[in-house]
Amino acid sequence: MHEYMEPSRRLPVQTFDVVVCGGGTAGVVAAIASARQGARTALIESKGYVGGIVVEGGTALHSFYNLYKPYPDVEKKQIVKGIPQEIIDNLVKIGGSTGHVEMLSRYDYDSVCTAIDTELYKLVAFDMLTEAGVCLCMNTLVVGAVMEEGYAPGSDRANENVAGIAEHGRRIRGVITESRSGRELFEAKSFIDCTGYGDLSAFAGAAFTEPNDHPVANSMGVGGVSIDDYCAFMRAHGAVTDYSEGIRSGKDGQVVRVDCDPRKLPPEIAREAQEIGMAFVTTTVHDNYLMFIKLNYKTPESPTSRDQASLAEVALRHRQMKAIAFFRKHIPG
């Protein structure tokens, strides 16, 4: 690969009190909290929506309560409140969440199930961010950091064995972004790195590793299906593990979460699911819809590789098609 020397240019500068990089699970809450305290706050997000793993994972949120169910002497206690609870309250009002309903079986890692509609979550989060006065910078990518004391990431100093930025008295002065509005610099008094990959921290010189020890995943919603039949199929094989009931399409006492032990299913079914990395767990807040079917794919290299991530996207789309064929072949309803 040959190289090209990009000419220097002057960047327009925007100034805020707080810049939050990444509008995922943490970034949404951080930005709302900041703006509500009166800080001029910007939220920079690379996609056209917010929510991150909350909306891309699509399953129940883990977990607003302590792990009380397996332990009779442990008091039930809500440990996540505040803005996250406001989000759930707003979702419940428009039929976008079950609220916190108790797990009725397999509660060794979650005592409650908080299922959500992933699309309504995006809407509610946008509304709360806007109401708080957050400056939304969507479809905007963080591409660099400008450090104080003349330190520029990418220089020789950036290649030092850095244990931490603060240890060397370095401070982020600004974040460089790219969007269809061009290349810009966002300056602020404080920066919050809520990117899934820790991008801002890496650009600022923080040390990191890439263990590549977990599959990447893609989740999809599936329409025209019956979670009741899905659950009954698993129950007929004695395979049900996770199980919870709550409000579904406005009616209480309905199945909203179910999972199974694939080892108890017919071997052909378990094998075919394993071949495409399909997990059986799903949740829903609507009739005739599975909110979330997850497919896993193990990349041979770190998913920070653009080329590997691109290959994974293609492979996962094919796995989704195979998952639909799998459902039609094996699962009633």
What are the SSEs and their pairings?
Layout lengths: L12 E9 L3 H12 L4 E4 L8 H5 L24 H12 L7 E5 L6 E2 L4 H15 L2 E3 L3 E7 L24 E8 L2 E12 L5 H5 L12 E8 L3 H10 L3 E9 L2 E10 L6 H9 L6 E2 L5 E9 L8 H25 L3
Parallel strand pairs: 1-2, 1-8, 2-5
Antiparallel strand pairs: 3-4, 3-10, 6-7, 7-8, 9-13, 10-11, 11-12
Q: Give the % helix.
A: 25-40%
- The side-by-side strand order for the widest beta sheet comes to 5-2-1-8-7-6
Q: Per DSSP, what share of the residues sits in E-state strands of 2 or more residues?
A: 25-35%
Give helix and strand order, one letter per element, not per position.
EHEHHEEHEEEEHEHEEHEEH
Q: Count up the helices.
A: 8
Overall residue-averaged pLDDT value: 93
How far apart are the termini? 53 Å
Rg, nearest Å: 23 Å
Given as residue ranges, the uncertain stretches (5+ residues, pLDDT < 50) are: 151-164
Summarize the structure.
With 333 residues, the chain is of the alpha+beta class.
Structural descriptors:
alpha+beta; 13 strands; single chain; 5-stranded antiparallel sheet; 6-stranded mixed sheet; 333 residues; 8 helices; 28% helix
Any overview of this molecule?
This protein has 333 residues and is of the alpha+beta class. A 6-stranded mixed β-sheet has the order 5-2-1-8-7-6. Strand 3 and strand 4 form a beta hairpin. Helix 1 packs parallel to helix 4. About 4% of the residues have low confidence.
